[in-house]
Amino acid sequence: MALTVNIYYSGINGNARKFAEEMISTGIVNEIRAEEGNLKYEYFFPMNDEETVLLIDSWENQQALDIHHQSTMMSKIISLREKYHLSMQVERYMTDESSIPDQDRAFIKE
Fold it and tell me: E strands of 1-110, at which residues?
């Protein structure tokens, strides 16, 4: 069962955005995306909060995420998080393997 972790990084003076930019420019993001089991690793910027960045981080299963957490990537991420003095809010979601209900399909444009 796939899982998705939404991480809201918050700081001051644009530090959350600087963190995301450095994660990308140093190649850390590409390294994470190349890890076995990674399905998505993407940053988004909430329109109503310039001091927060949302990371959507999806993995094939818990084992893949556990391996990522034990990798050298985590020390790099933690170091940058500390550099920019960021706080975090985390949400975790499991993929619903069932199909989308018909009553919901009426609202989806494909």
Answer: 3-10, 38-44, 52-59, 87-94
Tokens 């990371």: give the residue: 55
Q: How many C-beta atoms lie closer than 10 Å to residue 39's C-beta?
A: 15
Q: Is the overall model pTM greater than 0.90, yes or no? A: no
Across 60-97, b (16+ Cβ under 10 Å) vs e yields eeeebbeebeeeebeebbeebbeebebeeeeeeeeeee
- CA distances to 19, 21, 74, 98, 101 from 86, rounded to whole Å, are 9, 14, 15, 36, 39
Each residue's pLDDT tens digit, 1-19: 899 999 999 999 999 999 9
Q: What domains lie within the chain, and their CATH numbers?
A: 3-96 (3.30.70.100)
